[in-house]
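User: Reviewer 2 asked us to show a designed sequence for the structure in our supplementary figure. I'm pasting the structure tokens here. Could you produce the per-position amino acids so we can include them in the response letter?
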């Protein structure tokens, strides 16, 4: 029998970051000395007090199903965190705990979109947004932003992209892949346009704690409080607390939407892992020393990689204000030849880099920004130096 797969699969593709990562890991498993800049996860261990809380939960037999939407004490702690750190008011019924921020976003688009409904996404974007929208039968509407403007959206371009079918606009600051943080002025420009258009605002704040600038993080709803009632804040524990494998994230937003998302979760995955939730509670209530140390180290690494990439002829790298990615422009290398063959684009360049120079970096194309490569600097300084040397060798080998 030929298995007939669902038609909706035709519109989506595998996650570029996850597949590149898998390729790099497969090479490393064969003994190759791969320097990987591909992973979107901190290379730090989960802080001990968080692990201890989960271990204590396991030892106490906290190993059963919980309420689908999350344990009450975690939901209350999330509301307190949003109030304390983000100056945003939510009640526990407005919060849904899921298996990671990715799962929260998936639930959200499934709950929100009918066939043909549109979601505005700024490019460069995190690879999963358009595919998640497509999986919910929605239509991603892409709005380009530019390196020269610090990737701040152009309000005029945003206005042009909105239509009566627009159900949501996604904002991701600090951004994966660019590391750009939207300034208050940039957020105000977006808010001004959205004030006149009745749609949801989805803010993916997963990198909010990873900042290398002194200005504090701001959500669009802080800049324009009148938009707060139609803002959904998505966040998680993966990046700030080095908890990628724990799979824990949440969404906070309008009650009707959160209830609909919970119904989807009821009928699909049920609750997030019980003991992960206890760990997350400790993360929100415990000390932030480990986080502060991690951010200080990331800042040193950012400076190292930005300076090193900018020394390589043909590569131009912007200094990111947040997250742990750099997104250098490699347009000057496209069209040059390697071993007699012209390089067609970022995908091909990343293949040569991995196969012949054992450096894993994700091509810009799946992030909606050809002419770039994404490097995660969530790897040691020694790896960054080794990787930079190899990238330099690749560029020197081009004709
Ligand atoms: C912008 C962005 N949002 C969401 C996620 C998902 O995070 P989680 O591990 O909580 O599912 C990622 C992970 O790479 C991300 O980069």
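Assistant: Here is a per-position design you can include in the supplement:
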């Amino acid at each position: 029998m030929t298995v007939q797969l669902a038609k909706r699969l035709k519109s989506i593709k595998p996650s570029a970051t996850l597949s590149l990562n898998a390729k790099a890991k497969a090479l490393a498993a064969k003994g190759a000395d791969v320097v990987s800049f591909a992973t979107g996860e901190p290379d730090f261990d989960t802080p001990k007090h968080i692990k201890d809380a989960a271990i204590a939960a396991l030892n106490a037999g906290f190993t059963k199903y919980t309420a689908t939407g999350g344990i009450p004490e975690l939901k209350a702690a999330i509301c307190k965190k949003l109030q304390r750190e983000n100056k945003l008011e939510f009640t526990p019924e407005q919060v849904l705990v899921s298996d990671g921020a990715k799962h929260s976003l998936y639930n959200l688009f499934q709950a929100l979109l009918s066939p043909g409904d549109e979601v505005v996404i700024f490019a460069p974007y995190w690879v999963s947004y358009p595919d998640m929208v497509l999986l919910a039968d929605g239509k991603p509407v892409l709005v380009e932003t530019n390196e020269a403007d610090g990737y701040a959206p152009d309000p005029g371009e945003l206005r042009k992209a909105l239509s009566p079918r627009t159900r949501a606009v996604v904002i991701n600051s600090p951004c994966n892949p660019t590391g750009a943080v939207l300034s208050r002025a940039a957020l105000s420009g977006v808010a001004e346009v959205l004030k006149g258009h009745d749609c949801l605002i989805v803010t993916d704040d997963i990198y909010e704690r990873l900042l290398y600038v002194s200005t504090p993080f701001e959500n669009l709803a802080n800049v324009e409080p009148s938009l707060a009632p139609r803002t959904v804040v998505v966040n998680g524990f993966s990046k700030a607390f080095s908890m990628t494998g724990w799979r824990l994230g949440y969404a906070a937003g309008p009650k009707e939407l959160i209830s609909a998302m919970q119904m989807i979760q009821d009928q699909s995955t049920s609750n997030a892992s019980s003991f992960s939730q206890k760990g997350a509670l400790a993360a929100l209530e415990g000390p932030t020393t480990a986080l502060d140390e991690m951010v200080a180290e990331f800042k040193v690494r950012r400076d190292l990689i930005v300076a090193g990439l900018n020394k390589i002829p043909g590569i131009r790298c912007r200094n990111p204000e947040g997250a742990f990615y750099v997104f250098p422009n490699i347009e000057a290398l496209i069209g040059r030849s390697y071993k007699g063959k012209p390089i067609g684009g970022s995908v091909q360049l990343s293949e040569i880099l991995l196969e012949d120079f054992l450096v894993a970096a994700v091509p810009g194309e799946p992030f909606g920004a050809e002419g770039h490569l994404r490097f995660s600097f969530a790897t040691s300084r020694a790896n960054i130096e080794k990787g930079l040397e190899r990238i330099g060798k690749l560029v020197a080998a081009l004709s």
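For the response letter, you might also mention the following. DSSP finds 13 helices and 14 strands in the chain. The longest helix spans residues 289-310.
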